[in-house]
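Title: Comparing notes on inverse folding

I've been comparing how different people in this forum approach sequence design from structure. To keep things fair, I'm posting one structure and asking everyone to reply with a full sequence. Here's the target:
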């Protein structure tokens, strides 16, 4: 079960618009000197609103023109080179090929986006079902999506996505906050042997996904023979520390270009 996100800035019990405006529902609008009381409340409210707006501007990196701060990030067609994933490579084996760039990248004045994937070497599991490499194998794939929003603040949408119970047809098992990573980061544990790390910093939104899969390879002369029982599903949670450290490196690389 996914817990509710932390809510801040809610109205306290008992507060109402009537109290703030100085309006008494039974006696009607305030008169005489009490009008000044209501006016002072109005001034205080305006000042509070200005302070909240200022906090949003400086605390969330939104400039006076309403556009998000890039924080030095660059997302371009060649940015998949930032996906070195040294920590995961040490744990899962060095990929045989460099990251592959997906075809749905975007280079628009309002948004730049790249998607890249990399496959780690397959690992044989359990007893062999035959010769010539036949048997059960587990494979791991990592994918990176990096977006740089230039016109609108991506944070409200980013926060809303952290409450999803299903992503691309797969259920969300739980969501965990990751401290000291970007402005806000969530580790999303899926029920399909995958996990994703979502990070937002200024106008940049990055998602690094690690997914595992099982496959059975059979040799040419093995057709008709009984397939051995499948081993347990591969584990991804053991690599969450590797995923977080690799994301830090990706973020640094996207800033240096």
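Reply #1:
Here's my take.
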């Amino acid at each position: 079960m996914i817990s509710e996100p932390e809510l801040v800035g809610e109205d306290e019990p008992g507060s109402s618009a009537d109290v703030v405006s100085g309006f008494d529902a039974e006696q009607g609008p305030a008169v005489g000197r009490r009008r000044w009381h209501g006016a002072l409340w109005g001034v205080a409210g305006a000042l509070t609103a200005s302070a909240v707006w200022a906090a949003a501007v400086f605390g969330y990196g939104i400039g006076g023109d309403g556009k998000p701060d890039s924080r030095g990030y660059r997302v371009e067609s060649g940015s998949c080179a930032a996906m070195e994933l040294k920590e995961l490579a040490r744990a899962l084996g060095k990929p045989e090929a460099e990251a592959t760039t997906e075809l749905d990248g975007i280079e628009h004045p309002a948004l730049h986006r790249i998607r890249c994937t990399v496959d780690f070497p397959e690992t044989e599991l359990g007893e062999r079902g035959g010769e010539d490499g036949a048997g059960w194998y587990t494979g791991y794939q990592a994918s990176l999506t990096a977006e740089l929003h230039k016109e609108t603040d991506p944070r409200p949408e980013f926060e809303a996505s952290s409450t999803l119970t299903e992503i691309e047809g797969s259920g969300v098992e739980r969501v965990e906050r990751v401290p000291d990573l970007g402005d806000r980061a969530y580790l999303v544990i899926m029920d399909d042997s995958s996990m994703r790390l979502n990070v937002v910093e200024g106008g940049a939104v990055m998602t690094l996904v690690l997914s595992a899969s099982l496959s059975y390879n059979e040799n040419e002369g093995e057709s008709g023979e009984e397939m051995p029982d499948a081993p347990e599903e591969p584990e991804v949670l053991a690599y969450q520390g590797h995923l977080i450290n690799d994301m830090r490196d990706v973020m640094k690389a996207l800033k240096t270009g």
